[in-house]
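Researcher: Structure for this, please.
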Amino acid sequence: MTRFEAMLAQQGTCLDPDQKAAVYSDVNCIVSAGAGSGKTTVLSYRFLRLVLEGKATASEILTLTFTRKAAREMHQRIHRLLLSWKDDPVIAAQLAQFDQAPISTLDSFCSSIVRSSSVSYGIAQDFAIDDEQNLANARQCAMRLLDDEHRSEGAKLISTLYSPEDLVDSVLVPLLTQHYFLPQKVSEDAQRIIIEAVEKRYEQVKESFTSLLLRYSSLGDSSKTVQGVREDAVLLLDGIASSCGEEELFALLASPVGFRKKSGGKSEDLLFIKDTYDSYLEMRRLLCLALAVLNGREQLQSIVTFVQQLVEEYQMEKRKSGMLTFSDVSSLAVEILKENKALRKYFKQRFRYIMIDEFQDNNEQQKELLYLLAERLESEGEGIPKASDLEPDKLFFVGDEKQSIYRFRGSDVRVFKRLAGELTSV
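Model: Predicted structure, token format:
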């Protein structure tokens, strides 16, 4: 019986089989557990086991959660658990340095990384985090560029595509606040990247659309509705096959040919048309959208140039005001650890274990950060490590996908789900 097991027995603590499997796990793992299943208990007792077995000191176990309230509660819970065994010399030594135990929010930890190198990115060390103020700043920046009497051709062109309010609030502000975090920039090669992505998507949708038209053209029902759909499908297929270019094809797909009201009827062919008509309309819409972009390659570059200017001015405002978003901070922390290998090595050596609670409320950037911290000590790879490049026992994720409540902050529960395919599930 280990000292940890003896302590549990002496205290009368009984962990259920699932809790025990998590507490004793010595591999990178993810614990998916529902409300009331004792997730905090598991983290606390795993902390105690690591300390008692001499695997790490309290200052070598980085324990992270999402909110400050949860971090305080975690700190208190672990401290109380250690206090209950204060007569043990190993525990007493850890209690003496418990004020150095790194138990905090992931945002706070990211901020500490960024403050260590912020000057290199033109940001004062005393920066503040305020998502609401940044929304207002993004709106002001967009309106300033659009209202400028010397506004660019791209600004003029994009203004013709949307109403003023929709352009600012539904297009430009989300673009700035949800996609371009410091230190990201709009690629100089953005036009080519966009065109290639649109062409790829266009070919995928066109293949599916053509397959559906072929199915429509082979329907055998003699009813008037089916006959009309069959004839329209043949016309569209012939037009697609004989079109001389993207402009001609756009004119065909944007024409009234092939648009019909949904009809009733219970024959197999009529039911098939009814079941697939929404998909037909959506694919046709996507093809028209893609062709509009491809037909406007020259105009696209002016819009890309406008977006580049917009992003640059918005990020300059952030640097001048020292007002960042939570996403800026996590993005910068990832960039700093990727580029500054000495700092990455320092953190890899400092923390022997990393435990993360409520990870369903985090996102891909934060997962990348933790993978950088868990990279094998002897490795100094470029980019984000793969799961196979990590120390085999450093990461311990806990969460419940049903409790994700911070999607407005950019959390992405899909990241938590994908972790199960990369790490051991307990």
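Researcher: Any notable elements?
Model: The chain has a mean pLDDT of 88. The beta strands are 29-32, 61-65, 103-105, 128-129, 323-324, 353-356, 395-399, 424-425.
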